[in-house]
Amino acid sequence: MNAGEPRGHTLSDPSAHAGRPASGANSLTEPKDSGQASARHASVIPQDVDIIVTIDGPAGTGKSTVAQALAERLGLDLLDTGAMYRAAAAIAIDRGLMDDIEADDPATRDPAIARFVEVVTEADVHFDWTTDPPAIMAWSKALGKFEPINERIRTPDVTRAVSIIAGIVPLRHHMVRKQRIIAHQHPRLVTEGRDQGSVVFPDALVKFFLDADLKVRAERRADQLRAAGYPAEGDELMEQLARRDEADRNRDEGPLICPDDAITVDTSDLTFEQVVDRLGRDVLDRVGVA
Q1: What angle do CA 233, 237, 238 make, to 5 degrees?
Q2: Helix or strand or coil: residue 136?
Q3: What is the pLDDT at residue 288?
Q4: Residue 266: phi, psi to the nearest 5?
Q5: Which of 11, 18, 77, 96 is positioned for an S-S bond with 186, CB 3.0–4.6 A?
């Protein structure tokens, strides 16, 4: 089976929801606006070559910026799966569902999680390919239309909640189905996240795992938050990232692991250009393009 095939999973047509139109499917800090983008540059890889490139790794390693630049350089499409989980976290917060989702009592927590997954499914999180950069969209009942939530998903409250949300098993099943369908529709793809090479696309032609020293990652995340106008303390961010790493590596579904066949790149002492150059060379070598 090819890496981009949806493996028998289908999603309901969002137009089936009443009244709703169908959706479309210099540092290493992660940008506010990144997602799934149609390739806007000439491809250096032959057009008849379908290729999935996965980039996994913990927060703060530069996955989003590197994936975006690599996709542009190679003329491939881009899928930011972290934005999808952040969108789900924003929905949980804005709908007032987080307290029940985090409840200790299963009698409260389990129905809340089931309802939350229904709400995310109804919101039909997807990317708008017509904007540059692409906007991640979700259905707004209040507005009666899809709205972009790129800025919302990069706020500190979403960052704090996303690890909890990303550990919800039925949500991960839903997101994996959507990601495989996106890859089926766009089979020339750079996709980044935490389980892309291990779970979502285990047959991907090229897999990367980015890592970096925890202190370096915290400094990058602090720079990102300050640039967005939010206060940030390095020590506090180190603690948050360490907790996120622990949660990501130990969750039952889609844990953060380095696939056995992935190329590991430590970005701690590398510039942005050096990382993109390294990954670009590795992809072209694998494809056989000089």
Answers
A1: 120
A2: strand
A3: 87
A4: -85, 115
A5: 77
Question: How far is Cα 268 from Cα 56, in angstroms, rounded to an integer?
Answer: 15
Task: Give the Cα separation of 155 and 160 in Å (integer).
Answer: 9
Residue 247 phi/psi, 5-degree rounding, is -65, -45
What pLDDT score was predicted for residue 40? Answer: 52
- The answer for 237, left when phi > 0, alpha when psi is -120 to 50, beta otherwise, is alpha
Rounded to a whole number of angstroms, the distance between the first and last alpha carbons of the chain is: 27
Residue found by looking up tokens 């990382």 in the block: 275
What's domain 14-25+30-281's architecture?
3-Layer(aba) Sandwich (3.40)
Question: In angstroms, rounded to a whole number, what is the distance separating the alpha carbons of residues 271 and 233?
Answer: 23
Listed in sequence order, the residues at least 6 apart from 76 whose beta carbon sits closer than 8 Å to its beta carbon are 39, 43, 45, 51, 53, 70, 188, 189, 190
Radius of gyration of the chain (CA): 18
The pLDDT, as a whole number, for residue 229 is 87
Residue 192, helix vs strand vs coil: strand
Low-confidence ranges of the chain (pLDDT < 50): 1-19, 24-39
Q: Residue 132 has what pLDDT? A: 63
| Encoded tokens for 154 | 């990069």
Is the Cβ–Cβ distance between 87 and 136 less than 8 Å?
yes
Q: Where are the alpha helices (DSSP H) in the chain?
A: 63-74, 81-94, 98-101, 106-123, 156-166, 169-185, 214-227, 234-250, 272-287
Q: Where are the domains of the chain?
A: 14-25+30-281
